[in-house]
């Protein structure tokens, strides 16, 4: 996980501490560079990295689920670098 993600992790931890019954899915995404199978694995690694950072801050792992979407759910045009960068992300979904 990149250092610029640490403030976001702190926000996630604060949200979960303020809402003790909240469970979330940590959803990893990638751009379309590489094989679909490799992108699924990478997106799962991304999601698990965020989960580990949140758990390390005292949140019970049972409240989190990692999901891998790979390149299946782009939010931007993957034909250009700016779009690919936007597609490399982690999103949270309430469970």
Which descriptors would you attach to this protein?
3 strands, alpha+beta, single chain, elongated, 95 residues, 3-stranded mixed sheet, 3 helices
Q: Could you list the spans in which at least 5 consecutive residues all have pLDDT below 50?
A: none
Overall pLDDT: 96
Number of strands: 3
Main-sheet strand order equals 2-1-3
What is the general shape? elongated
The rounded distance between the terminal residues' Cα atoms is 23 Å
Largest sheet: 3 strands, mixed
Radius of gyration: 14 Å
Helix content: 40-55%
N to C succession of SSEs: HEHEHE
Number of helices: 3
> In percent, how much strand structure appears in the residues?
15-25%
Which structural class matches the secondary elements?
alpha+beta
Write up this protein.
There is one protein chain. The protein is of the alpha+beta class and 95 residues long. Helix content is 43%, strand content 18%. It contains three helices and three strands; from the N terminus they run H-E-H-E-H-E. It has helices at residues 6-18, 36-56, 81-87; strands spanning 24-29, 64-68, 89-94. A three-stranded mixed β-sheet has the order 2-1-3. Helix 2 (36-56) links the parallel strand 1 and strand 2 (64-68). The longest helix is centred in the middle third of the chain and has 21 residues, at 36-56. The chain is elongated.
